Amino acid sequence: MPHVSDEDAALQALGSLDTLSADQQHALDAVNTILNDGEPFVDVHVLFGHYNILYFRSLLLPRVDVLWSPRLTLCAGVCELSRDPVTNKFTRIRLKLSTPLLQYRPRSDTINTLLHEAIHAYFFITTSWRHSRGDDGTGHGEGFQLLADAINSHGNYEITIYHTFHDEVDSYRTHVWQCDGPCKDRPPYFGIVKRSMNRAPGKSDSWWSRHEAECGGTYTKTQEPAPTKKKIEAMSKKERAGRQKNKLDGWLKPKEKQETDGKTSHVLKPSSAEDNAHSGASSGKRKAANVS
Ligand SMILES: [Zn+2]
Ligand SMILES: [Zn+2]
């Protein structure tokens, strides 16, 4: 069997988004109806069924069982292999969502966590379980980031590569580019591209030529991720103290801005994740979190 890497599998999923099939379009309509229904809760099973068709080439069902776990407390979500009751072989996948961690958070956290784990499940299946053995070290390598970024920009989600909410409250680890052309005034993206990977918008993006023709603007980098834990540990005491101060400023300033300009949805502000999910442009502190 030819070896399929996470990246190969991600590119296949990306390819399926270039032109949506009738089934995918139907799933997208259903997802949008759910996302706009204004309810505080969401049926993850129904949503997962639609995402399976829309983003994962219909490969996840019936193999993946989605369930809420009252005992999962260390991370918001987890994806694990499980035995098929008939064959007794590890050919099924359990995607668990943490009831205690997610039940009181905005539902966008549940949705982003569901998508994060669904990406793991997709790689488990497409790479013949190689992904589950963690060959790339983290489970969140290039392939994961490619697919997460594609889904984020397609549906305006906030899937990240982090495992706990705490990690993300700590820092904004996101690369952001802003277009200076007419699209910067257009919802839902306001000319903003956000990625967990430092990959500038360009020819490798399926939408690139359309953007060249319709907008023609130039993307400039406007935000870099905060340093990783490792980097911070390597910093001197003084540097760390300075960083702490900047972080506090960072939390306070956008709030003032928000008060004077309530309509500015695309400034960076520590607002609720629900807001973030709709603005598509703010860098929220709450994003999907979990473990592979
Ligand atoms: Zn543009
Ligand atoms: Zn993960």
From TrEMBL:
Location of the region described as Disordered in the Swiss-Prot/TrEMBL record: 218-292
UniProt-listed InterPro entries: Spartan (IPR044245), SprT-like_domain (IPR006640), SPRTN_ZBD (IPR055220)
Protein's cellular compartments: Nucleus
Primary location class: nucleus
Presence of the UniProt keyword Nucleus in the record: yes
Pfam families membership: SprT-like, SPRTN_ZBD
Cellular compartments per GO CC: nucleus
Keyword annotations: Nucleus
SMART domains hit by this protein: SprT (SM00731)
GO molecular function: metalloendopeptidase activity; polyubiquitin modification-dependent protein binding; single-stranded DNA binding
Domain of life of the native organism: Eukaryota
Domain SprT-like: 42-222
Biased composition (Basic and acidic residues): 230-264
GO BP term, pick one: DNA damage response
Name used for this protein in its record: SprT-like domain-containing protein
